[in-house]
Design brief:
Low-confidence stretches: none
Shape: elongated
Number of strands: 4
Number of helices: 10
Distance between the termini: 34 Å
Radius of gyration: 32 Å
Largest sheet: 4 strands, antiparallel
Strand order of the largest sheet: 2-3-1-4
Strand content: 5-15%
Mean pLDDT: 78
Structural class: alpha+beta
Helix content: over 70%
């Protein structure tokens, strides 16, 4: 066990020395890997923030019943009784027009505009929360409630939220596709760098074999080299995302404040950073392993 640990340590030191001996090549490869990883990671963060924002929105479908201006008290009471007795209605709340206007003024700052209105333009409203969840059932309930006497219009709310979630689902699929494509790119970048090093050390590898070095011994430093190069690229990607987050944080907060929201941009969490670094390191190791195994066979066959 001690010998195995010493071999691993020596291979790791050899890989570190090789990275430090070629600083320009190391920096260029690190930047290439960092950019490749930051693109799908950045898209994931954008979708994650949109998902958080959507999670703060009312996703439960609601039906708004806007009442006629001249509705009679008897019709209003009939609507209330009908909603209370309806089997498909889980809850219903009445919003008087004055309360609706007050809420609108307070939330949007429209006091100067509404002060000049001769009358309240908003209607009395019933907000209905259905027990149903399927689109056809909700549509049928909306049509039924729209026919009640005294109801001017019935509107099914939260349909745009469903569209948002559908768009987020498409975005998540795009993230998975990009992650797969850039994973292949990372393996190719690491593999090409390792292949160039192996070919440059062809004579050294042949001499090592003549004195009894096994393929595992020869391969080990290159595997560490690929893993370390990819790890540096992952750290570069994290730095790029952190810098982009710093630049976008203030504009996003300002934009949210214009819409009366206190939303702030969420940075990646420590587990997410750890996953990116671990996945990047693993892909670098895999790219190095595939390249070393193939290139060593080519070197052997050429002699």
């Amino acid at each position: 066990m001690t010998i195995w640990i010493r071999h691993q340590y020596q291979a790791l030191l050899s890989a570190l020395r090789r990275l430090l001996s070629q600083p320009l090549a190391t920096i260029l490869a690190t930047l290439a890997i960092g950019v490749a990883i930051s693109l799908p990671s950045g898209l994931y963060l954008i979708l994650d923030n949109l998902n958080r924002l959507a999670g703060n929105l009312p996703t439960q479908p609601e039906i708004s019943l806007f009442l006629d201006d001249g509705i009679q008290a008897k019709e209003r009471d009939a609507i209330a009784a009908r909603l209370k007795q309806h089997a498909d209605v889980a809850d219903a709340r009445f919003i008087p027009r004055d309360a609706a206007l007050k809420t609108l003024v307070e939330s949007q700052g429209l006091g100067d505009l509404t002060a000049g209105l001769p009358r309240n333009p908003l209607p009395d409203t019933w907000v209905v929360r259905p027990r149903l969840a399927d689109r056809d059932g909700l549509t049928a309930l909306r049509v039924e409630l729209a026919k009640l006497p005294g109801v001017a219009e019935a509107q099914l709310d939260s349909a745009w939220v469903e569209r948002l979630h559908a768009a987020l689902a498409i975005g998540r699929t795009a993230v998975h596709l990009l992650a797969g494509l850039f994973s292949i790119a990372l393996i190719a970048i690491t593999g090409n760098a390792i292949r160039a090093l192996i070919l440059a050390r062809r004579d050294e590898i042949q001499i090592s074999r003549l004195i009894g070095a096994t393929d595992r011994y020869i391969r080990r430093p290159f595997l560490y080299l690929g893993a370390l190069q990819a790890l540096l690229g992952g750290l570069a990607a994290v730095a790029v995302l952190a810098f982009a987050g710093m630049l976008l944080s203030t504009p996003v907060t300002h934009l949210a404040s214009l819409y009366g929201s206190a939303y702030q941009l969420h940075p990646p969490t420590l587990p997410e950073v750890a996953i990116v670094l671990a996945a990047t390191t693993l892909l670098g190791w895999l790219g190095a392993w595939l390249t070393v195994a193939r290139t060593l066979r080519q070197v052997e066959s050429s002699h």
